[in-house]
Specification:
CATH topology of the largest domain: Rossmann fold
CATH superfamily of the largest domain: Response regulator
Strand content: 5-15%
Strand order of the largest sheet: 2-1-3-4-5-6
Distance between the termini: 23 Å
CATH architecture of the largest domain: 3-Layer(aba) Sandwich
Order of helices and strands: EHEHEHEHEHEHHHHH
Shape: globular
Helix content: 40-55%
CATH class of the largest domain: Alpha Beta
Largest sheet: 6 strands, parallel
Radius of gyration: 17 Å
Number of strands: 6
């Protein structure tokens, strides 16, 4: 199942995968919410999940799919070059993580590996994760809990507290608490500063 909020991207992936004799696209979804709704009926062997989508986003969708079916095999994709997204996607339950900038044949190899129950992480990203683990040099957003990180990214994209509450199924007061804790941990004052920090660390692309 291909999950990406850009129809052109899904079409490109689908055309690429059609060239393979052992990979078939059985379903598509344009959001994390749609993926969670379609998963049971589609029963895919592998879910290829974009991380940066509107709404709940890929990481929250990964968590919900894993909660639905602990055997689900998810390959997370992202155009971002930060370390936070791959680490959090893997912690959420994804079995693999691949950059959208990878060569086409690498995507097929990654899908095959994840289908077999093997982990697959983009080599360059894996190296950066390893270097960070050895050096202990973490970025500021690594101080955030999983939920604080989700709220932070949503706020940085311009979402309101009410919108985030509805998307993540949290109360306004809970989102407000996460917002307060995030500002305290990152030393930020307002939403504009959150957006600037997120852009600097490659967590969001304001041109997208």
């Amino acid at each position: 199942m291909l999950v990406d909020d850009h129809a052109v991207v899904r079409m490109g992936f689908k055309l690429l995968l059609q060239a393979s004799d052992d990979v078939v696209v059985v379903a598509e979804a344009d959001s994390g919410e749609a993926a969670c709704q379609a998963f049971a009926a589609a029963a895919p062997d592998v879910v290829v999940m974009d991380i940066a989508m509107a709404g709940m986003g890929g990481i929250e969708a990964i968590k919900r799919l894993v909660a639905k079916d602990g055997r689900v095999r998810i390959l997370a994709l992202s155009a971002h070059e930060d370390i936070s997204h791959p680490m959090r996607a893997l912690q959420a339950g994804a079995m693999g993580y691949l950059s959208k900038r990878s060569a086409p044949e690498v995507l097929i190899d990654a899908i095959r590996a994840v289908a077999k129950g093997q982990r697959y992480v983009d080599p360059q990203i894996a190296q950066r994760i390893a270097v960070q683990a050895i050096s202990g040099d973490k970025g500021p957003v690594d101080k955030l809990s999983a939920r604080e990180f989700e709220v932070f990214v949503q706020l940085a994209r311009g979402q309101s507290v009410a919108q985030i509450s509805e998307t993540l199924k949290l109360s306004n007061s809970t989102v407000g608490t996460h917002l307060y804790n995030t500002k305290q941990k990152l030393g930020l004052v307002n939403q504009a500063e959150m957006t600037l920090l997120a852009v600097r660390h490659g967590l969001i692309d304001i041109s997208a």
